[in-house]
Amino acid sequence: MTSTQSSSVKAYLLDLQQRIVSALEEVDGQAFGTDSWQRAEGGGGISRIIENGNVFERGGVGFSHVTGKNLPPSAAANRPELAGRNWEAMGVSLVLHPRNPYAPTVHMNVRFFIATAEGHEPIWWFGGGMDLTPYYGFEEDARHFHQVCRDSLQPFGDDLHAKYKKWCDEYFYLKHRQEARGVGGIFFDDLNELGFEKCFALQQSVGDHFIASYVPILKKRKDTPYGERERDFQTYRRGRYVEFNLVFDRGTLFGLQSGGRTESILMSMPPVVTWRYNWQPEAGSPEAKLATDFLVHRDWI
To answer: What is the per-residue burial (b if ≥16 Cβ within 10 Å, else e) of 37-74?
Structure first.
């Protein structure tokens, strides 16, 4: 692992952030704001944010590159070999919350981590993935999203999509609710067994396929007519998104425990959310169909 390789990853991530923001601005018609920040312990980032846009009620596409000397518990708990090493983490992470309940929320993240100690080989890995969270399900949307996910992994092995899809299904699962967060996608972590160049290429392919996975769905659904019923159900289901991010999400926990910038870490939160006590949708309704037909682990392609 060389400084040139690390610099290549950073350059790619910054370019990816800009390409994604440009594509989303074209759909929304409103510009994303830019918030650059620095972290006292080391590093910083650039948060690109849109609120009250024409399409996005809230969305964030963040780049961060942070460094430190002591890993937070969420990162070191299962990796004792990381103790006492200097570390750096960089990535692009996004969450988009469209206003229209028929347009799904989406999450994507690609990241790189390296820990170094004098006299020892560096420990490094890539991670990432993307997943789709609809409020009203459309089979063609789920099939499209999963097909593009599979396309992103196909050059690296025929078995990877099934492996990373299963990993995503298991990761984005609310154990206390016994339900999936959405229709899944792909998820991978601790990727280093292919060697740096191939691992980096895989990460780039996942990042590069995001726009094709989501923007066509967004364009198709963003102008669908809706009323108070759909909006009310959307804000209720957004509560599940908040629960997952605050209770289970590794990136959120890592960011908060490592002294990261809270505003940038929590930019994934939806702006309007509701909770109800023991509420269930009417049997046979479109709202009930989300749970019975979409929030189940299934092969979409």
So the answer is: eebeeebbbbbbbbeebebbbbbbbbbbbbebeebbeb
Pick the catalytic residue from 107, 144, 161, 209: 107
The mean per-residue pLDDT over the stretch 55-66 comes to 96
Q: Determine if residue 231 is labeled as part of a ligand binding site.
A: no
Residue 221 annotated as binding site: no
Q: Which domain holds residue 98?
A: 3-294
Q: Rounded to whole angstroms, what are the CA distances from 119 to 91, 113, 124?
A: 27, 19, 16
Cα dihedral sign, 247-79-64-127: negative
pTM (global) more than 0.85: yes
Name the average pLDDT for the chain. Answer: 93
Confidence at residue 77, expressed as pLDDT on a 0 to 100 scale: 62
64 appears as a binding residue in the annotation: no
Residue 71, SS3 per DSSP: coil
Q: What is the CATH number of the domain that holds 9?
A: 3.40.1500.10
Report how many domains make up the chain.
1
Count other Cβ atoms within 10 Å, centred on residue 290: 20
282 SS3 class = coil
Query: Catalytic site residue 107?
Result: yes
Token pair for 12: 């790619």
For residue 300, being part of any structural domain is answered with no
56-68/105-116 β-pairing? unpaired
In one letter, which amino acid is 2? T
